[in-house]
Automatic annotation (TrEMBL):
Protein source organism: candidate division WOR-1 bacterium RIFCSPLOWO2_02_FULL_46_20
PANTHER family per the UniProt record, alphabetical: NODULATION PROTEIN J
Gene Ontology molecular function, alphabetical: ABC-type transporter activity
Compartments, record wording: Cell membrane; Membrane
Taxonomic placement: Bacteria, Bacillati, Saganbacteria
Keyword Transmembrane: yes
Protein name (record): Transport permease protein
Membrane topology (UniProt): Multi-pass membrane protein
PROSITE patterns from the UniProt entry: ABC_TM2
One matching Pfam family: ABC2_membrane
Main localization of the protein described in the UniProt heading: membrane
Transmembrane portions of the chain: 25-48, 60-83, 104-131, 137-164, 176-202, 222-252
InterPro entries cross-referenced by the UniProt entry: ABC2_TM (IPR013525), ABC2_TM_bact-type (IPR047817), ABC_2_transport (IPR000412), Nod_factor_ABC_transporter (IPR051784)
ABC transmembrane type-2 domain segment(s): 23-255
Amino acid sequence: MVELRAIYILWLREVKKFLRAKERIIGSVAMPVMFMMFFGFGFSHTSIPGIDGKINYIDFLVPGMIGMNMLFSSMFAGISVLWDKEFGFLKEIMVAPVSRVSIALGRIAGGATTGLVQGLLLFIISFFFGFRLQPGVNIIVAVVMMIIFMTLIAFSFLSLGLSFATNMRDAQGFELIINFVMFPLFFLSGAVSPISNLPIWLRALSYANPLTYGVDGLRSVLVGASMFSLFFDLIVCSFSAIAMVSLAAFFFERSESI
Protein backbone atom coordinates (compact mmCIF):
# COMPACT_ATOMS: atom_id res chain seq x y z
CA MET A 1 0.00 0.00 0.00
CA VAL A 2 2.88 2.35 0.80
CA GLU A 3 4.44 1.58 -2.59
CA LEU A 4 1.20 2.36 -4.43
CA ARG A 5 0.81 5.63 -2.53
CA ALA A 6 4.36 6.62 -3.48
CA ILE A 7 3.64 5.87 -7.14
CA TYR A 8 0.43 7.93 -6.95
CA ILE A 9 2.13 10.93 -5.30
CA LEU A 10 4.93 11.02 -7.88
CA TRP A 11 2.40 10.57 -10.68
CA LEU A 12 0.36 13.48 -9.30
CA ARG A 13 3.46 15.67 -9.02
CA GLU A 14 4.34 15.14 -12.69
CA VAL A 15 0.77 15.88 -13.80
CA LYS A 16 0.53 19.06 -11.70
CA LYS A 17 3.90 20.29 -13.00
CA PHE A 18 2.67 19.82 -16.55
CA LEU A 19 -0.69 21.53 -16.02
CA ARG A 20 0.90 24.53 -14.31
CA ALA A 21 3.32 25.10 -17.18
CA LYS A 22 1.02 26.29 -19.95
CA GLU A 23 3.98 26.90 -22.25
CA ARG A 24 4.81 23.18 -22.10
CA ILE A 25 1.34 22.29 -23.35
CA ILE A 26 1.70 24.68 -26.29
CA GLY A 27 5.32 23.82 -27.01
CA SER A 28 4.68 20.08 -26.91
CA VAL A 29 2.37 20.16 -29.92
CA ALA A 30 4.06 22.99 -31.83
CA MET A 31 6.53 20.85 -33.79
CA PRO A 32 4.00 18.17 -34.86
CA VAL A 33 1.59 20.93 -35.90
CA MET A 34 4.30 22.54 -38.05
CA PHE A 35 5.03 19.17 -39.63
CA MET A 36 1.33 18.74 -40.43
CA MET A 37 1.19 22.25 -41.84
CA PHE A 38 4.24 22.08 -44.11
CA PHE A 39 4.34 18.38 -44.98
CA GLY A 40 0.57 17.88 -45.00
CA PHE A 41 -0.25 20.82 -47.24
CA GLY A 42 2.97 20.51 -49.26
CA PHE A 43 2.43 16.88 -50.23
CA SER A 44 -1.37 16.73 -50.08
CA HIS A 45 -1.72 16.50 -53.87
CA THR A 46 1.45 14.50 -54.47
CA SER A 47 1.48 10.79 -55.23
CA ILE A 48 3.95 9.14 -52.84
CA PRO A 49 5.02 5.54 -53.52
CA GLY A 50 3.96 3.12 -50.82
CA ILE A 51 0.86 5.07 -49.75
CA ASP A 52 -2.50 3.50 -50.51
CA GLY A 53 -4.34 5.64 -53.04
CA LYS A 54 -7.47 5.43 -50.89
CA ILE A 55 -5.98 7.77 -48.27
CA ASN A 56 -4.40 11.18 -48.74
CA TYR A 57 -1.07 12.24 -47.29
CA ILE A 58 -2.46 14.15 -44.29
CA ASP A 59 -4.35 11.01 -43.22
CA PHE A 60 -1.10 9.06 -43.53
CA LEU A 61 0.88 11.74 -41.69
CA VAL A 62 -1.28 12.35 -38.60
CA PRO A 63 -0.69 8.96 -36.90
CA GLY A 64 3.03 9.52 -37.45
CA MET A 65 2.83 12.95 -35.84
CA ILE A 66 1.04 11.50 -32.83
CA GLY A 67 3.82 8.93 -32.55
CA MET A 68 6.41 11.69 -32.93
CA ASN A 69 4.77 13.71 -30.17
CA MET A 70 4.80 10.70 -27.83
CA LEU A 71 8.46 9.97 -28.64
CA PHE A 72 9.73 13.52 -28.13
CA SER A 73 7.72 14.31 -25.00
CA SER A 74 8.58 10.95 -23.44
CA MET A 75 12.31 11.01 -24.08
CA PHE A 76 12.74 14.60 -22.91
CA ALA A 77 10.79 13.88 -19.72
CA GLY A 78 13.94 12.22 -18.43
CA ILE A 79 15.56 15.62 -18.00
CA SER A 80 13.35 16.22 -14.95
CA VAL A 81 15.41 13.56 -13.16
CA LEU A 82 18.54 15.63 -13.76
CA TRP A 83 16.83 18.78 -12.48
CA ASP A 84 15.68 16.92 -9.38
CA LYS A 85 19.25 15.73 -8.87
CA GLU A 86 20.57 19.27 -9.19
CA PHE A 87 18.09 20.78 -6.73
CA GLY A 88 18.29 17.92 -4.25
CA PHE A 89 14.69 16.75 -4.52
CA LEU A 90 15.70 13.27 -5.63
CA LYS A 91 17.84 12.75 -2.54
CA GLU A 92 14.90 13.72 -0.36
CA ILE A 93 12.53 11.16 -1.85
CA MET A 94 15.24 8.50 -1.71
CA VAL A 95 15.11 8.52 2.10
CA ALA A 96 11.40 7.61 2.01
CA PRO A 97 10.60 4.01 3.00
CA VAL A 98 9.73 2.97 -0.56
CA SER A 99 11.69 1.16 -3.24
CA ARG A 100 13.47 2.99 -6.03
CA VAL A 101 11.46 0.92 -8.48
CA SER A 102 8.25 2.52 -7.17
CA ILE A 103 9.83 5.96 -7.56
CA ALA A 104 10.74 5.14 -11.16
CA LEU A 105 7.25 3.79 -11.88
CA GLY A 106 5.63 6.92 -10.45
CA ARG A 107 7.67 9.15 -12.73
CA ILE A 108 7.00 6.95 -15.75
CA ALA A 109 3.25 6.87 -15.06
CA GLY A 110 3.15 10.65 -14.63
CA GLY A 111 5.06 11.24 -17.84
CA ALA A 112 2.82 8.82 -19.72
CA THR A 113 -0.28 10.68 -18.53
CA THR A 114 1.02 14.06 -19.69
CA GLY A 115 2.06 12.48 -22.98
CA LEU A 116 -1.48 11.17 -23.47
CA VAL A 117 -2.90 14.65 -22.91
CA GLN A 118 -0.56 16.03 -25.56
CA GLY A 119 -1.33 13.22 -27.99
CA LEU A 120 -5.09 13.62 -27.64
CA LEU A 121 -4.78 17.39 -28.07
CA LEU A 122 -2.79 16.85 -31.26
CA PHE A 123 -5.41 14.36 -32.48
CA ILE A 124 -8.14 17.00 -32.07
CA ILE A 125 -6.04 19.69 -33.77
CA SER A 126 -5.38 17.38 -36.74
CA PHE A 127 -9.03 17.62 -37.84
CA PHE A 128 -8.49 21.34 -38.54
CA PHE A 129 -5.78 20.33 -41.04
CA GLY A 130 -8.10 18.06 -42.98
CA PHE A 131 -7.56 14.75 -41.21
CA ARG A 132 -10.53 12.40 -41.36
CA LEU A 133 -11.14 8.92 -40.03
CA GLN A 134 -11.66 6.48 -42.88
CA PRO A 135 -15.19 5.17 -43.61
CA GLY A 136 -15.96 2.11 -41.53
CA VAL A 137 -13.68 3.14 -38.65
CA ASN A 138 -15.58 3.22 -35.36
CA ILE A 139 -14.45 6.39 -33.59
CA ILE A 140 -14.90 4.98 -30.07
CA VAL A 141 -12.89 1.84 -30.84
CA ALA A 142 -10.31 3.92 -32.72
CA VAL A 143 -9.80 6.35 -29.82
CA VAL A 144 -9.55 3.53 -27.26
CA MET A 145 -6.97 1.67 -29.36
CA MET A 146 -5.14 4.93 -30.04
CA ILE A 147 -4.86 5.56 -26.28
CA ILE A 148 -3.53 2.02 -25.78
CA PHE A 149 -0.82 2.48 -28.42
CA MET A 150 0.07 5.96 -27.14
CA THR A 151 0.42 4.56 -23.62
CA LEU A 152 2.71 1.76 -24.79
CA ILE A 153 4.85 4.20 -26.80
CA ALA A 154 5.05 6.54 -23.81
CA PHE A 155 6.05 3.79 -21.39
CA SER A 156 8.75 2.55 -23.79
CA PHE A 157 10.43 5.86 -24.44
CA LEU A 158 9.88 7.43 -21.02
CA SER A 159 11.70 4.42 -19.63
CA LEU A 160 14.48 4.81 -22.19
CA GLY A 161 14.85 8.51 -21.34
CA LEU A 162 14.87 7.68 -17.63
CA SER A 163 17.57 5.06 -18.21
CA PHE A 164 19.79 7.67 -19.87
CA ALA A 165 19.06 10.33 -17.23
CA THR A 166 19.79 7.97 -14.34
CA ASN A 167 23.29 7.41 -15.63
CA MET A 168 24.08 11.05 -16.43
CA ARG A 169 24.68 14.24 -14.46
CA ASP A 170 24.76 16.98 -17.08
CA ALA A 171 21.47 18.25 -18.57
CA GLN A 172 23.16 19.59 -21.71
CA GLY A 173 24.86 16.27 -22.31
CA PHE A 174 21.52 14.53 -21.85
CA GLU A 175 19.87 16.76 -24.46
CA LEU A 176 22.64 16.04 -26.98
CA ILE A 177 22.41 12.30 -26.46
CA ILE A 178 18.62 12.27 -26.59
CA ASN A 179 18.53 14.27 -29.84
CA PHE A 180 21.09 11.90 -31.33
CA VAL A 181 18.85 8.95 -30.42
CA MET A 182 15.42 10.46 -31.13
CA PHE A 183 15.74 11.67 -34.68
CA PRO A 184 16.89 8.35 -36.19
CA LEU A 185 14.08 6.63 -34.27
CA PHE A 186 11.59 9.14 -35.66
CA PHE A 187 12.68 9.12 -39.30
CA LEU A 188 13.08 5.32 -39.37
CA SER A 189 9.58 4.74 -37.96
CA GLY A 190 7.63 5.44 -41.13
CA ALA A 191 6.07 8.50 -39.53
CA VAL A 192 6.47 10.78 -42.56
CA SER A 193 6.99 8.29 -45.41
CA PRO A 194 6.51 4.55 -45.90
CA ILE A 195 9.50 2.48 -44.85
CA SER A 196 9.01 0.43 -48.02
CA ASN A 197 10.67 3.36 -49.84
CA LEU A 198 13.87 2.98 -47.80
CA PRO A 199 16.97 1.04 -48.90
CA ILE A 200 17.07 -2.54 -47.60
CA TRP A 201 19.69 -1.81 -44.93
CA LEU A 202 17.70 1.13 -43.55
CA ARG A 203 14.51 -0.92 -43.73
CA ALA A 204 16.17 -3.51 -41.49
CA LEU A 205 16.85 -0.77 -38.91
CA SER A 206 13.21 0.32 -39.17
CA TYR A 207 12.05 -3.19 -38.34
CA ALA A 208 14.24 -3.11 -35.22
CA ASN A 209 12.73 0.23 -34.15
CA PRO A 210 9.88 -0.13 -31.59
CA LEU A 211 8.35 3.17 -32.72
CA THR A 212 7.74 1.67 -36.17
CA TYR A 213 5.14 -0.67 -34.69
CA GLY A 214 3.60 2.07 -32.56
CA VAL A 215 3.11 4.32 -35.59
CA ASP A 216 1.87 1.40 -37.68
CA GLY A 217 -0.64 0.49 -34.96
CA LEU A 218 -1.89 4.08 -34.76
CA ARG A 219 -2.22 4.20 -38.53
CA SER A 220 -4.10 0.90 -38.54
CA VAL A 221 -6.73 1.99 -36.00
CA LEU A 222 -7.18 5.53 -37.35
CA VAL A 223 -7.05 5.14 -41.14
CA GLY A 224 -7.09 1.38 -41.70
CA ALA A 225 -3.69 1.32 -43.44
CA SER A 226 -0.79 -0.67 -42.01
CA MET A 227 2.20 -2.83 -42.89
CA PHE A 228 1.67 -5.37 -40.12
CA SER A 229 -1.34 -6.86 -38.40
CA LEU A 230 -2.81 -4.90 -35.49
CA PHE A 231 -2.20 -7.85 -33.17
CA PHE A 232 1.49 -8.01 -34.14
CA ASP A 233 1.90 -4.25 -33.58
CA LEU A 234 0.26 -4.60 -30.17
CA ILE A 235 2.49 -7.52 -29.15
CA VAL A 236 5.72 -5.76 -30.20
CA CYS A 237 4.74 -2.49 -28.48
CA SER A 238 3.76 -4.36 -25.31
CA PHE A 239 7.02 -6.29 -25.25
CA SER A 240 8.98 -3.08 -25.85
CA ALA A 241 7.18 -1.29 -23.00
CA ILE A 242 7.78 -4.16 -20.56
CA ALA A 243 11.44 -4.46 -21.56
CA MET A 244 12.12 -0.71 -21.35
CA VAL A 245 10.34 -0.29 -18.00
CA SER A 246 12.34 -3.23 -16.62
CA LEU A 247 15.55 -1.64 -17.90
CA ALA A 248 14.72 1.74 -16.34
CA ALA A 249 13.82 0.08 -13.03
CA PHE A 250 17.11 -1.84 -13.12
CA PHE A 251 19.21 1.29 -13.68
CA PHE A 252 17.24 3.35 -11.18
CA GLU A 253 17.48 0.67 -8.49
CA ARG A 254 21.25 0.32 -8.91
CA SER A 255 22.22 3.92 -9.54
CA GLU A 256 24.80 5.23 -7.09
CA SER A 257 24.97 8.74 -8.57
CA ILE A 258 21.52 9.75 -7.32
